Amino acid sequence: MSNKIIEKAPAGAGTELDVLIIGAGVSGLYQLHLMREKGLTARICEAGSGIGGTWFWNRYPGARLDSESPSYQYLFSEELYRNWTWSERFATQAEVEAWLNYVADSLALRQDIDLDTAVTSAVWDESILRWTVQTSRGTTLRPRFVIACCGMLSAPLTDQFPGQTLFKGQIFHTARWPATGANLAGKRVGVIGTGATGIQVVQALAPVAGELTVFVRTPHYALPMQNVQYSAVEIEAYKSNFRALQDQLPVSFGGFDFAPEYAWADLSPEKRLEILEACYSDGSLKFWLASFAELFVDEEVNAEISAFIRAKMRARLNDDRLSEILVPADYGFGTRRVPLENGFLEAFLQPNVHAVPVKSNPIAAVTPTGLQLADGTVHELDAIIMATGFDAGTGAFARIDFRGRDGLSLRDHWQKGVSTAFGLQMNGFPNLFMTGAPLAPSAALCNMPICLQFQNEWIADCIEHVLENGGHVIEPTAQIEREWVEHHDLVAASVLMSKTDSWYVGSNVAGKPRRLLAYAGGADAYRTRCLEIAESGYSGFDIH
Description:
Elements: E1 16-22, H1 26-37, E2 42-45, H2 54-57, H3 78-82, H4 93-106, E3 113-114, E4 119-125, E5 130-135, E6 140-148, E7 170-173, E8 188-192, H5 196-205, E9 211-216, E10 223-224, H6 232-239, H7 242-248, H8 269-281, H9 286-290, H10 299-317, H11 320-326, E11 340-341, H12 344-347, E12 353-357, E13 363-367, E14 370-373, E15 378-380, E16 383-386, H13 395-398, E17 401-403, H14 410-416, E18 432-434, H15 448-468, E19 474-476, H16 478-493, H17 523-535, E20 541-543
Parallel strand pairs: 1-2, 1-6, 2-3, 4-17, 6-18, 7-16, 8-9, 8-16, 9-12, 10-11
Antiparallel strand pairs: 4-5, 5-6, 13-14, 14-15, 19-20
């Protein structure tokens, strides 16, 4: 890109730059690298005291990948890929955080990252065609473009129960776990929530806590993880597979190296069972994402597959009471987030681990000494761990006071109905780009580094196109945004997850408008559509 096209900030101005990136996670780091490769002045503002995004904040006991490590990487550089070595099939939080630090060092990114610097507001100034951005440090930045890489699960739901400030013991949210850790050995520990995070916490703390009481509102289907430590031979094998992954993952349905191979209707019951057993035994997300595609859209197929998983879970528990509490019965497999687990169910067979159902007898309050249920029962605790989830998709963006053209509030706009153009931009918010935002696969339904890398590259090329063609501003038209929302909703109506209450549709947050947050048509179809727009010269986007 020619520097003649880009108006550089005046020497010594300090506050003006071409691009401000919010967040130093998987998306933000690569976005910074791309912006610098394009010759633009760019910085990251990161609220945390270290880089890593999700993998910096979520350092709770048991946190690890449930995407396989070799596919949870950037694919733009074989050197970057091969020079990092994963130690196991499903890496721990500490190893993923270390990988992201390796990326930052390898690409020399740290000099352009401001840690402990949260963006509090961003206001579009039409008179200078720039954003005015305020940070928690009291600094003001005036970038041409803002790229919000805030994270799809970065706004934890922390203040959920009356009396939390009165508790005399320790209280933690899993997404704000102290970097120094927490000594819970021998203590009476309560865990609220049994989603993906709660499952990992329970199986990690069961051998440690004196008494572990798990408060279960909605039980989750979970698949047993088959984790292995990699040998030198296995490490070289996956590293040698880089080119195949580079070719296959970006054009796959979900950014993984597996996909359904058979149609349910074409097979006998015996063959269907054989495939289900094989996928189940793989010990990965393959059972969910590569057994039968029909489980996402066909209620009868979903019911049979759900029955298969329920039977597996009940057999492992071999306890009618625990099965009643821990095995889902009122929704279908795959219509909520499906986590992997490693001994979660068996933890409840230990004498120190207790399952307390709270759907019909909910948690009423936190008392100074524990948790009180609606019927007055009090569970005495030394520590409370809140695995209570997130304001997914929208929350991390809406917690920043974005003001677009004519003072349009992003927070207020989304409260009326969540909408974007391809999860990349929004009408009324010029020069604001997003990754991991609503109505894109990366909002939930994708192997994140793969989908985020595509969005990063699309944004970088788009900004380059605007500047090289003498433009200053890009914004999707109201029409193309409306068309994408309509297409998104049409696809969403065909999948069962849109009919099931979960964070996928925002039903875990009171008052949040219901809409499937992630595009369910596949990362491959999404990629094709976005590339068509780019190849057309960004038809449907107003550039001036």
